[in-house]
Amino acid sequence: MCDKVMKNIHKKIVIADDDPDDRNLASIVFKELNLIHIVDFVTDGQELIDSLTKKVNSKSALPDVVLLDLNMPKKDGRTALKEIKSNPGLQHLNVIIFSTSSSDEDKKYTLALGAINYIIKPSGYNELVSVFKSICEEFFVTTSIN
């Protein structure tokens, strides 16, 4: 359970990941943290770009954070990040690379493109909870519940 209070119930995280097991596990973790209502999923980079572009065009609220896997079909995370950061309506988005890739080249490239962080997907459940909790606390919470 998250030990912080949400600043605003309208906050959103989009997770772009083609692996159904990873999406399912993320759902379980966010449910455990009582934050499942803030998470949306897309299954590839093209779906992410289409969704974000639609929001910009309709002047809908964009997500506060995008967790972006690098290795996806149709459009990989590198290409999606490049498109996000070259689009004036999207370039301000907080994009965190969330990938199994531990390549220094991937890390340097994506951070140079404008990703705000590069997180290698943890292998254990408790580590995943810790990572997601940390992301939520950084972007969405303000005070502790006593």
Characterization of this structure:
This protein has 146 residues and is α/β, with parallel strands linked by helices. It has a single domain, classed as Response regulator (Rossmann fold, 3-Layer(aba) Sandwich). It is built from five helices and seven strands, in the order E-E-H-E-H-E-H-E-H-E-H-E. It has helices spanning 20-32, 45-57, 77-86, 104-113, 125-140; strands at residues 4-6, 13-16, 39-42, 65-68, 94-99, 117-120, 141-144. It has a five-stranded parallel β-sheet with strand order 3-2-4-5-6, sandwiched between helices. A two-stranded antiparallel sheet has the order 1-7. Helix 4 links the parallel strand 5 (94-99) and strand 6 (117-120). Helix 1 (20-32) packs across helix 5, helix 2 (45-57) runs parallel beside helix 3 (77-86) and helix 3 packs parallel to helix 4. The protein is globular, with a radius of gyration of 15 Å. 29% of the residues are buried.
Index terms:
disordered C terminus; alpha/beta; five-stranded parallel beta sheet; globular; disordered N terminus; Rossmann fold
Strands ordered across the widest β-sheet: 3-2-4-5-6
- Number of self-contained structural domains: 1
* Helix-residue proportion: 40-55%
Specify the overall morphology.
globular
* Helix-strand pattern: EEHEHEHEHEHE
Mind summarizing the main beta sheet? 5 strands, parallel
Q: Using only CA atoms, what is the Rg?
A: 15 Å
Q: Classify the beta-strand content into a percent band.
A: 15-25%
Say which CATH homologous superfamily is assigned.
Answer: Response regulator
Low-confidence stretches: 1-8, 142-146
| CATH 2nd-level architecture | 3-Layer(aba) Sandwich
Q: Could you tell me how far the N terminus lies from the C terminus, measured between alpha carbons in angstroms? A: 13 Å
**Quick one: how many beta strands?**
7
Give average pLDDT, whole number: 87
What CATH first level would be assigned? Alpha Beta
Class per helix and strand makeup:
alpha/beta
Reported by name, the CATH topology is Rossmann fold
Q: What does the oligomeric state look like here?
A: single chain
